[in-house]
Amino acid sequence: MGHALNPAQRLAALADPTTLPPRSGTPARFTVVARDTSSEARAGVLQLPHGTIETPEFMPVGTNATVKSLDPDDLRDLGAQIVLANTYHLYLRPGHERIERFGGLHRFMGWDRPILTDSGGFQVVSLGPLMRIREEGARFHSHLDGSEHLFTPERSIEIQQALGADVAVAFDQPVMPDASSRREVERAMERTHRWAVRSLRAHTRPDQALFGIAQGGIDVEFRAQSADVIRALPFDGINLGGLAGDETPEQRNLAIEATVGALTGDPRVRYLMGLGSPIDILEAVVRGVDLFDSVLPARVARNGQAWVTGGRMNLRNARHLDEDLPIDSACDCRTCLRFSRAYLAHLFRAEELLAYRLLTIHNLRHLTSFMGAIRSAIRSGTLAAELPRLRARAGGPGSPRLGAGDEPGEVPARGAMRPRYAAKGRVVLRTVQGAEDTEG
Length: 440
Description:
By secondary structure, the protein is of the alpha/beta class. The chain has two domains: 28-294, TIM Barrel; 301-393, no CATH class. It has 17 helices and 16 strands. The strands form four sheets. An eight-stranded parallel β-sheet has the order 6-5-4-14-13-12-11-10. Strands 1-2-3 form a three-stranded antiparallel β-sheet. Strands 7-8-9 form a three-stranded antiparallel β-sheet. Strand 15 and strand 16 (311-314) form a beta hairpin. It is globular and about 80 Å long. The relative contact order is 0.14. The model is unreliable at 398-405 and 407-440 (pLDDT under 50).
């Protein structure tokens, strides 16, 4: 008689890639339609069950099944082809079972174009002292009410399948890329590889694509190693995770180059998670990345920061109170076509909700228009010639300042990978009996 597996042996068996069952077909088809001859940049078409996406593209983030202050018509009007929703937040509220009863995420939020759900790994790890990681998964306390939960690869996939997005993402363990030790990065990367196999094994929904995540921090050796492991698995797309954190742009670019270099010849779409500023996106496109997401355009809009041709503008600056000009004369969004800087500056001082809506529309349209310009340059074979203009448009190094005071006093800190929920003191951490340490 065979012996029953102990918990460690069971988890090891689930993470064994040699026993994965074959996957039949894929609901995601990616085709490269143009390549830049002077860089790794490429333009493509990603076909998903709810529509076709032209890449490179940026995905607005609808954390709670909504991009804050916008409705689906706003998103269509500003050119969004796909949006991202957050598994962690929707699991906690309103609950994936409820969304499933309403017919899935598309019907629930009234959006008929593609949706991607992240795995929840980033949010769980961001809970800091509210979270403990072990091989089984991540045990955490809700930032809403302190209740205890366990996310495993299997649980994350179960939730994402219930939500019913076009694309689900494997559960992973990101770490702060620069602040973490090499050993911490290595252990998190190796665990991410094991969780990738378990995510694949748990995923059974045939009308939903599943993307895997390559980790490795800013260590170029780890980056290439992780890309090799993930590309060997039958995912429908490959994500670059664990960046857009506390690393410098130079460190990030080297990590991207190492990852993309290890993916040479791989036909799947590449998605860099969490990157949102125009200049950073442009530099990643040049290095071969296709998809991006970030809360940044909407978050800074709520602080009064407008993204404009050549940089950014702080609408809380008093000098804008008397400017009868659009935010950006080159922008075709409804905000710029109809309202003045003076009106927006007034709304922010009066703390009117319309301020957040109008500036979020502008910032996201600024970014979707910028992505369209990049795609056009790649398709026409003129990217190399247009790079200086595109970098200047994005407000990259060497771009002129827009004016005194237009650098906001409260610029989001470099990197978002920090325990935001815990730091706010919104939850009193309960004692977790026998909890494993984060090194697992």
